[in-house]
């Protein structure tokens, strides 16, 4: 039970709210800001002045002024090339690093293939930091990095950004956030999140789920992950491990799962299972997004084995979705990563299972949708995670970054 | 995206926070309030003066003053006999109505058996209002009813307190909140919630879950219900239908469920199933809490059939708990209603299923507990629902109640 905020806390909250508005919805006139945020125009002016002085936004005449007479309202625009974050996406077979500007624009990016199999933590951090350094160098002298975020395919403890369990790339108990922050030496913390959690966040803020407060996001890569938005917030649970939908048991006694259990959604619907059913397991055990898409394409062309494989997988996916609809009463279920393709190839079966397995009341309301951000959902979510601090307290973060650095600068 | 609150909103928030503190934690000195709420003592004095003037709290010398020299700090005490709510619990075979004072004390109560089978909405409302009227009459002239809450065994739409689906007492699509409010004519709205949701709330506020922000509460009556607390808040979903754990499919193709599906937790673990396995189905199809307890007692005494019945039921209960641990990363899973007894009779099996089915990371943290409030959990939750308005904005609610009534007074 906490008392209400102090005037200073309110000012910080309002600065953050204004900055978040233009970050997520784009440039806006003072008039629009005043109406949207429920503040009067003099307050908007004062807040904008502070954010402008800090170099976070700038005010401009609108590019396409309206026809009405009189002086046009100035437009507040995020400083999207000057203020940026670093976003990292650790996929099972690919690393991506991007420089993302305030406002959400990807300014620059690098990707590299990651050989499947065990990953050495130190080598991983070296690879990520190396790519980031290149991006930072190209950013220019007056650009400022205000945060860094990592999407990781496994279980992450939110309190200290530590990777707890990453079976798909064989990474366990690694202080990834701390290691990468030290190596980057940009004076910003590195927040690490589960990839599906970040995909969910991205779809809610910038994708299919905009405007929806209750979302279940299912993400397919090698494994199946989940991210859940409840009342507009990411469900974390006690330590940030929440949303592990991939390890819901849908088929008791079913296929063995990498987690040690049986019949998890992951083991019944994951990439290897689909390829197995479709008779397309690669001789070297490798697979990937393209292999999954090839099954869906083959089914589209009438391949019976591929169709049956998708039907089997769609049955378990449908069971899981029905359960999630009953438990969460979501406005939307979003299928992302390879599950986007799997869902498109098995939608009739998924919907049929939901029709019989979900209660009428929550079923009537839910929409089943595919992710809009495509393969960039997790990277976008990592960027949003990285922006969280500066959006919560813009001036404080900027002030801290301008203090003489205690850590060594990037060479 | 909303701007920060106005000074008036902050004052209301602080009034509500102070009132909530003494409501939930009991009488507190100004010194304790100042420290707990993070406000200075002059603010606490002003807030207390306002609440005292409104008749919501009173200040007294402590009953057992400390030994330290000087004037003892006054204790702020909720006006628990003067300010009350009406709490209704609609069980499958019993109605309970209580008058609950600010601070959570049950001041008076009435219960009546409800014959199992279809219930006529008008008769139900008449029975509830009649019992309430007796309690209100006995309350005295200076007592004020500040709210009313109903726990209902089925699906309730939160936006308009409407019963959508109540298969266990055959009540469908009834504007229960509105009907009861009109009949009570006390000038307060009647909020209606799912019984398991309210049980979860009660256990979090006053029972086993105090201090825990992430709780899964499983409630057994005739059916199995669930209430979930995420980040300190009740999970509602889009329309308040969330938390229907009883209709998670745990055993695909399993026993037919009243909802039309198969293998729901409800149909695998519910009262009828347990009694069926134990060979104790009543000839008239009736059952109830006593019958469930009798099975657990028999198992305790070594009855093999009863033990096997609990083992079977415990297996599916364990599957469900494992899934919920993976999805929610809760700090606690609480078993209430008849599931309290079922869990106590099958704890080893439930724990064994959780050990194999839940991921290590969230499993390490979760505690499995039985409800502390016993059969009163749902009634207590209904009272807390009813107090919500006055705790959110104390003076406003009191002022509204003192306006000349437009509705007829209770005869």
UniProtKB/TrEMBL annotation, chains A, B:
Gene3D superfamilies: 3.30.420.40, Winged helix-like DNA-binding domain superfamily/Winged helix DNA-binding domain
Cross-referenced InterPro entries: ATPase_NBD, ROK, WH-like_DNA-bd_sf, WH_DNA-bd_sf
Protein name (Swiss-Prot/TrEMBL): N-acetylglucosamine repressor
Family listed: Belongs to the ROK (NagC/XylR) family.
Phylogenetic classification of the source organism: Bacteria, Bacillati, Actinomycetota, Actinomycetes, Streptosporangiales
Pfam families tied to this protein: ROK
PANTHER family named in the record: BIFUNCTIONAL UDP-N-ACETYLGLUCOSAMINE 2-EPIMERASE_N-ACETYLMANNOSAMINE KINASE, ROK (REPRESSOR, ORF, KINASE) FAMILY
């Amino acid at each position: 039970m906490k008392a209400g905020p102090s005037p200073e806390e309110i000012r910080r909250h309002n600065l953050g709210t204004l900055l978040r508005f233009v970050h997520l919805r784009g440039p806006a006139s003072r008039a629009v800001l005043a109406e949207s945020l429920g503040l009067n125009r003099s307050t908007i002016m004062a807040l904008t002045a502070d954010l402008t002085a800090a170099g976070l936004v700038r005010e401009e005449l609108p590019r396409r002024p309206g026809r009405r007479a009189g002086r046009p309202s100035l437009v507040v625009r995020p400083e999207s090339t000057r203020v940026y974050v670093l976003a990292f996406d650790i996929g099972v077979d690919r690393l991506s690093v991007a420089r993302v500007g305030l406002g959400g624009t990807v300014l620059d990016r690098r990707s590299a293939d990651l050989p499947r199999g065990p990953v050495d933590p130190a080598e991983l951090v070296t690879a990520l930091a190396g790519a980031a350094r290149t991006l930072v160098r190209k950013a220019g002298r007056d650009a400022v990095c205000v945060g860094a975020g990592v999407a990781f395919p496994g279980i992450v403890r939110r309190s200290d950004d530590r990777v707890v369990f990453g079976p798909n790339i064989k990474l366990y108990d690694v202080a990834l956030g701390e290691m990468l922050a030290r190596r980057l030496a940009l004076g910003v913390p590195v927040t690490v999140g589960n990839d599906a959690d970040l995909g969910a966040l991205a779809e809610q803020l910038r994708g299919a789920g905009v405007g929806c407060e209750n979302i279940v996001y299912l993400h397919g890569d090698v494994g199946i992950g989940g991210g859940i938005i409840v009342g507009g917030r990411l469900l974390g649970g006690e330590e940030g491990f929440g949303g592990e939908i991939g390890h819901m048991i849908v088929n008791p006694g079913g296929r063995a799962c990498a987690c040690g259990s049986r019949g998890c959604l992951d083991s019944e619907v994951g990439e290897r299972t689909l390829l197995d059913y479709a008779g397309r397991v690669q001789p070297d055990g490798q697979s990937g997004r393209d292999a999954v898409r090839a099954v869906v394409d083959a089914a589209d062309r009438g391949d019976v084995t591929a169709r049956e494989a998708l039907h089997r997988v769609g049955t378990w996916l449908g069971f899981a979705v029905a359960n999630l609809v009953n438990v969460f009463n979501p406005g939307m279920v979003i299928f992302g990563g390879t599950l986007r393709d799997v869902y498109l190839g098995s939608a009739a079966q998924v919907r049929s299972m939901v029709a019989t397995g979900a209660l009428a009341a929550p079923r009537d309301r839910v929409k089943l949708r595919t992710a809009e951000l495509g393969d960039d959902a997790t990277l976008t979510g990592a960027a949003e995670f990285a922006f969280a601090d500066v959006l919560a307290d813009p001036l404080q973060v900027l002030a801290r970054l301008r203090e003489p650095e205690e850590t060594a600068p990037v060479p």
